[in-house]
Amino acid sequence: MVSWQKSSGKKNHKSLIENKLKTLSKNFLYTNLKKLRIKKTDTIYLGLDLKNFYIPFLNLLNKDPNLFDKNTLNKIFYKNLKEYFLPNGTVIFQAFTWSFIKKKKFHPRFNSPDIGSFEKYVFNKPGVARSSHPTNSIIVFGKNKNFVSKNHGLYSFGANSPYEKFKDLNLKFVNIGVPLENSCTYLHHLEHINGTNHRFNKLINGKVFVNNKYLRKNFYILVKYKNISTAVERNEKKFFNYLRKKNKLKSLEANQVLFSVINCEDVYNSGLSFLKNDSSYFMKKTIFVKFSEKIKKIKKNYYIF
Question: How many domains would you assign to the chain?
Answer without folding.
Answer: 1
